[in-house]
Design a protein that fits this description.
19 helices
Length: 431
């Protein structure tokens, strides 16, 4: 086992202990003197739909000479951003705790997130108009659809950031960001379903070891919608209201999607319908691919009373690859997000001992689509994380026995090495 893999292994430490270990490494400067070194780099987030809009506008002006611009979205998500992640590398720096309050109160960051939405809508309308033209070649229509879907998929992350804020305007804007993908139920399910059940077999948005993305996808889509309906029904029942009421946040979101699809079809014609449906499916699938990556095989253990332990940094896969973090508002610092769901992206921290992915989220998308590639990258990493204890893994029940037999020897070797290291450390402390 190499040193990098071994560094990812850690004990069942409490969240408080992890935070106290990492806090001193954040910065040596007092909070009042500290300035965010990435302050203007965060503009890359809202710049993304602008890039898409510019590419589609270029294609509209010269569709024959600039055909490749139709494929800008997939090129960025699956090629350019992963390449930049590898070239530029990681950033493990944290803001000092004394600067967090100031960061949270700075409206600049909130405006950055919201600035994504108007350009997102303009880009989607532009894509619908181009895809509905009779003279647009089929291959170009596919590229345009994937470009718009890719950027609307990233827009779901904008909704994720806004949806965790308490005021009604932010929640409505979160739904607006989700409306082009028809995934507005995410605001309800993610906040009150996923965050409660994360890293447990009961969570439809937490993937299991041995479960392929293609098996996970229908489970999480259907399970997420069912969960959202159940959560919203319970909320309305507490207010003595039924499901069919104007206060129903699910109905509000679905009405926004219907209005957006209807208005776009009215403007661009019925040929826009297949485009709108296809880009929505692709955009939503990108969200679910990231969900698949974030908690693969990780499991919160139960206490003596049969209750799951509190969510800790060890229950999310993280990455510090800076370019993807800039585009995704530091979603890759996922452990801190689950520890503090309302904490704004600019204040999220890196935990040194949280499990780390081999690359940024963008570079993990293609492996997730190919099960054999994914298992090769991640299965042993999960076993390393649990120091060879296979009982601590969130298994796909259909493959649990098969995989436990497959990895029995490897797990035994990992457990033996972990024990030797602990014994060695104990001896050194005793000396």
């Amino acid at each position: 086992m190499n040193a990098k893999t071994r560094d990812n292994m850690h004990s069942q430490a409490t969240q408080t202990a992890v935070e106290s270990v990492n806090a001193p490494a954040a910065s040596s400067k007092p909070g009042k003197d500290w300035k965010d070194p990435k302050r203007y780099l965060w503009l890359m987030g809202p710049a993304l739909p602008g890039i898409g809009l510019a590419a589609l506008a270029g294609y509209a002006v010269a569709p024959k000479k600039l055909r490749s611009l139709a494929w800008t979205g997939p090129a960025l998500v699956h090629g350019v951003i992963p390449a930049l992640d590898r070239a530029i590398g990681e950033d493990k720096s944290n803001p000092p705790e004394s600067a967090v309050k100031t960061l949270e109160q700075d409206k600049y960051y909130d405006r950055i997130v919201k600035a994504f939405i108007p350009t997102q809508y303009a880009m989607t309308f532009m894509g619908a108009w181009l895809a509905s033209r009779k003279n647009t070649p089929l291959a170009d229509k596919i590229g345009i659809t994937l470009t718009v879907g890719a950027i609307n998929g990233v827009g779901i992350n904008t909704a994720h950031e806004l949806g965790h804020k308490s005021n009604k305007l932010n929640k409505l804007m979160a739904m607006a960001a989700l409306a082009p993908t028809g995934y507005t139920h995410f605001v309800v399910e993610h906040n009150f379903g996923h965050h409660k059940r994360v890293a447990t077999p009961e969570d439809p948005a937490s993937s299991r070891m041995g479960e392929s993305f293609w098996k996970f996808l229908p489970r999480t889509v259907v399970g997420g919608i069912k969960s959202a309906v159940k959560i919203e029904k319970a909320r309305l029942a507490r207010k003595d209201k039924g499901f069919w009421t104007l206060d129903n946040e699910l109905l509000q979101g679905w009405a926004m999607s219907a209005g957006f699809f209807g208005a776009t079809t009215l403007i661009c014609g019925p040929r826009a319908v297949p485009f709108l449906a296809a880009q929505a499916v692709y955009g939503a699938s990108l969200l679910e691919t990231v969900n698949y990556v974030e908690h693969y095989g990780l499991l919160r253990q139960k206490d003596s009373k049969g209750k799951y332990q509190r969510t800790q940094p060890e229950h999310s896969w993280n990455s510090n690859h800076i370019v993807t973090n800039l585009f995704l508002y530091q979603l890759q610092r996922h452990s801190d997000h689950h520890a503090h769901p309302t904490r704004s992206f600019q204040a999220l921290r890196h935990f040194e001992h949280a499990p780390q992915l081999p690359g940024g989220y963008a570079s993990m998308l293609l492996p997730a689509y190919l099960p054999s590639w994914w298992y090769e990258m991640m299965d042993k990493r999960v076993i390393d994380h649990y120091e060879g204890d296979l009982s601590k893994i969130n298994w796909d029940p259909d493959r649990k026995e098969e995989l436990m037999n497959k990895y029995a020897d490897y797990a035994a070797a990992v457990a033996a090495e972990a024990k030797n290291q602990k014994d060695s450390s104990s001896s050194e402390e005793a000396a």
